[in-house]
Write a structure and sequence with these properties.
Mean pLDDT: 94
Structural class: alpha/beta
Helix content: 25-40%
Shape: globular
Strand content: 15-25%
Length: 200
Amino acid sequence: MKLVLASNNKGKLAELQAMFAPLAVTLVQQSALDIPEADEPFHTFVENALAQARHAAQHSGLPALADAAGLCVDAFGGLPGVQTAFYGTQFGYDKGDVGNVRALLEQLDGVANRRAALVSTLVAVRSPQDPEPLIAVGRVVGEIARQPMGSNGFGFDPVMFIPEFGKTFAELPVEVKNAHSHRGRAAQQMLALMRERWLG
C-alpha cells in the first residue's frame, strides 16, 4: 500500500517508514509529488493532522498519513504544542532543531519544573472526504535536560530525558527509541487500526 506522508520532514519520514515496514506500506513524501504544505491554523494536534492528511489526499489522489507532533512543557502551560516547529523563531533563532533547543533551554533556565511530554498524533485518511479517519495518539512524559546529550534522533530528542531509561531519546539506540517514543507509540496504534479497518 502506498501512502502520502503529509510532511517534508526527512527525520519523520525515516522514522515512520521503519515503523510502517511490518505492513509493507510505502510512504511517499508529499514534496516528491509537488504537493505544497497545508495550512495549520488550529491549536490542537488532531485538527492540524486531519487538515494535513486531507490536503495531501486531495492533491495526490492517494491515501494519506499526517503526523502532528510537538513538545508540551508543563511550566509553559502545555506550550509550544502545535507551534513546536517554530518555537525558536519567536526568540530570534532561525527555524530548525538547533534554534528550538537553544531557545527552550534559555526559557527554562532557573525553572524548577522541567516536566514535559512529547506528543504525536497520527491521522490517516483513505480519501479527502473520508468520514472515518484513523486517529492514533502517542505520548511520552519526561524532563528537559540541562544540556543536549546524544546524537541519535532529531527535534528535541537530545534534551528529552526519559527517567525509565536514564537517558535522553538521542542517547538511545534508534530501534529502542522508535519502540518507546511518542511517534513509535502512535505508529503501533495506527498499524493496529489499519489492519483492523483498512486491511481486515
